[in-house]
Amino acid sequence: MKQELLNKIENHSITAGVVGLGYVGLPLAVEKAKAGFKTIGFDVQEQKVKLVNEGHNYIGDVVDSELAELVKKGMLSATTDFSFIKDVDFVAICVPTPLDEHQEPNITYVRDSATAVAKYLTPGTMVVLESTTYPGTTEELIKPILEEGSGLKCGEDFYLGFSPERVDPGNLIYKTKNTPKVVGAIGDDAAEVISAMYSAVLEGDIHTVSSPAVAEMEKILENTYRNVNIGLINEIGRLCHEMNISVWEVIDAAKTKPYGFQAFYPGPGLGGHCIPLDPYYLTWKAREYGFHTTLIENSMVINDSQPEYCIERAMHILNGFKKAINGAKILMLGVSYKQDIDDYRESPAIRVYKELKKVGANVEYYDPWVPEFKNMYGESGESISQITPEIIAGYDLVMVTCAHSNIDYDMVQKHAKVVFDTKNAMKDIEDRENIEVL
Q: Which residue is catalytic, options 94, 154, 240, 274?
């Protein structure tokens, strides 16, 4: 089986499948098709399937013309019919892994996808989970589902591995194609074949580890590292405010050290599909071993409380102008979770919006990337169409909650009564008399 698959990879006769056509799955499917492998995308959402088959893109990092050309040439198609799994030699599962209402892993999408794949799995297939999850998922959850549902044996009839997605929406340098990839699989043969498949598709280095659990833990470490360091700088930022010290100046000074320091900046909280969620997967799994991840959990508490801290600071800022937050007119600049993208999943700005309304503020937002939003908190909003000096001057407080680069911050600073910059967008503006920093 190993040599047969290696030969098929070399001559590009592999048919690839990607389950889940979101921010991870669609770019991966496009890269596989561009590399010369006929690719089928699977998704339960009919609208996504329809858009792909019509050659229309809905993910920022995918080029419309490339997608349309791949569909036209028959190299890429999409379907809601999972029976076509029987026609693929390689399938990557790239579905969401959110948290439930108790802040515990919700692996429903992963389980359902594995069940759907198992039903049509054929001998000689490579299956790879890419969804971020807790260490042990591939071997403890996916393997039994695939074996029981298909009647096939892992390592003998099919290969199974884990290769964590690494997607950074809006990154102008690193995309799916050139980002290094980690692969962990069950057995040396599986690791060799799956790594060979990724090598045939991607330009980034392929780093093979000894097991899926190592690869799963590695992914959690990547994002927990950032969570902990962001929690640290958020706490330092709060202390600097109490001590009347500029946290921006402190960070700039620390950055002069050429080793042993990486700069992180305070913000209104964490957003996106990885950093705010992944540490919860690790702490949940750690409890199974009677292990308490104290440092990680403390950083999560700090980061999770940042939106409420922003509201507290906004209250104090307005009080300085003898203005109550109840009834105050507030403009938020940016609601996506990251600069210059339209993704507002888990965005802390949405939580700030919610909390401002809760305390009675008349809040509006401007975001050229997100004209409207609907979120898990039951809130929805519509961006005002433009910002001008007259419009800016009409608000009691302007809050920068996402530092989009296409906003004129000099104009905002010159005409706002006061600006509360929670995203370090005005760091280079010299006149900071009316700027409050998180």
A: 274
402 catalytic? Reply is no
Could you read off the pLDDT of 390-429 as tens digits, one per residue? 999 999 999 999 999 999 999 999 999 999 999 999 988 9
385 & 343 share domain? yes
Q: What is the mean pLDDT of the chain?
A: 93
Q: Which of 210, 239, 271 is the last residue of a domain?
A: 210
Do 147 and 27 belong to one domain?
Answer: yes
Give, for 245, the enclosing helix (H) or strand (E).
Answer: none
Structure tokens at 252: 């700039």
Element at 192 (helix H, strand E)? helix 188-201
- Six-digit token string for 185: 């699989």
Whether residue 182 is found in the same domain as residue 319: no
Write the pLDDT tens digit of every residue in 152-202.
Answer: 999 999 999 999 999 887 788 999 999 999 999 999 999 999 999 999 999
Q: Is 377 a residue whose pLDDT tops 80?
A: no
Nearest in space to 387 (alpha carbons), one of 376, 400, 373, 374: 400
Q: Tokens 């004129």 — which residue?
A: 408
Alpha helices by DSSP H, 328-408? 348-358, 389-393
Question: Which residues touch 294 (CB under 8 Å, ≥6 apart)?
Answer: none
What is d(CA 128, CA 151) in angstroms, rounded to the nearest whole number? 18
**How many domains is the chain built from?**
2
427: alpha, beta or left, given left = phi > 0 and alpha = psi -120 to 50?
Answer: alpha
CB 211 within 8 A of CB 186: yes
* 88-141 pLDDT, tens digit each: 999 999 998 887 766 778 899 999 999 999 999 999 999 999 999 999 999 999
Average pLDDT of span 264-278: 81
Those residues with Cβ within 8 angstroms of residue 342's Cβ, 6 or more apart along the chain or in another chain: 60, 336, 369, 370
Same-domain pairing of 176 and 247: no
